[in-house]
Structures
1.
Amino acid sequence: MVAVSLFVVLALSFYLTPHVMGFGVDHVTTTAEHRTVDLPDGSLVELGAASALDVQFSESARLVKLRAGEAFFTVKPGDMRPFTVKAGGVSVVVTGTAFNVRLAEEAVTVAVEQGSVEATMPPAETAQGKMEPVVRQLGAGEQLVARADGTIEQGPVSPGEAGAWRRHRLHADGTTVGEAISHLRRYHGGWIVVTDGNLLRQRLSGFYDLRDPVGSLRAVVGPFGAQVRPISVLIIVSAP
């Protein structure tokens, strides 16, 4: 009975999650779905799997809110209104450029393919003891990762890999296993449960095929000796 109850709960979760996430949201995608959205100013958004996006344009501003998942923005130049993308506590302001934003529980990631952006993060204490917003400038070939624990990582990224998911590739470069699994969850039509918290903090680099999330999951955790056990729609990842 416990097993049956668990299966029913999981099944309802799979069915309800896309509907709940899409309620009141302008644009939403489901598991493994990619979609292109034309914005009113001529800019383009490529919306990744299991993602949600709100668009709020006015006479003075262009605001897009990434509610979940990932999106690649190609912002049309020549419009004097600032173009702002908000994802969690991070705001990215641009005029005309191409960049990727990923929102996950573990971190918000911004990667720039062309042009430059300004990323503003929640206030942090300065050397003088004041609380001020953290502002970082990013140019083409740069990536910023603002983690939930308050740490910020900024470094190079190949411009061609800033939105690698558009070519069905997960690009990991010093990424934690937890972040990689969070990405793969959006391409797997089921649940992925990890029983070893230490595994999630391990780091890895490589390329993984989003069209084969289970095979990619094995490739992600295999080097750390973890086991992947599919049980119907549930996948359990455990320590050796």
2.
Amino acid sequence: MEVHVVEPKLDERIFGVNARPHLLHQAVVMQLRNRRAGTAATKSKGFVRGGGKKPWRQKGTGRARSGSIRSPIWVGGGTIFGPQPRDYSFRMPRKARREALLSALSLKNQEGKLIVLDKLELEEAKTKLMANALAELKIQSALVVVSQADAKIERAARNLPKIKVLRVEGLNVYDLLRYDHLILMEGALKLLEERLAS
């Protein structure tokens, strides 16, 4: 098991911008809302089974007039103004999404919670080896960003509750804020700078 920390010169355009809290908030809300299934549904009186016949005649019984046993005021009746399937998702403008990502990356750098590794090599895809590697770095909660698929690291981290492994393409604001530290592989850092510096 090898862990090598490096201290590269970070691009100020990516890791040195002023954090914009309102964009971070908006990005997190967007991600969480986009995950919602929006499938909650209730039946109004038109959709509840039964109730086709008028329970009693309109006049002359002394009781309140009633048209259906599936009326919302009856037991077993429909629901008034209940939730219906809907789409909660929305999209932020592309520039705003980019600014939010830069803000999150800069925040990690400013807080001293950004670690760049030259390599993180595990002999086997074992959770214990990954836990030991992170203990060596004195880290309990981290987002690990790799440049390409690494089955050993991904499988070794899968059972650690406060660790998540992502590829560069999947880097997002919610995960950056959710975990205490950001661990970037050197290759992932180069790809990230190529993608965001333009």
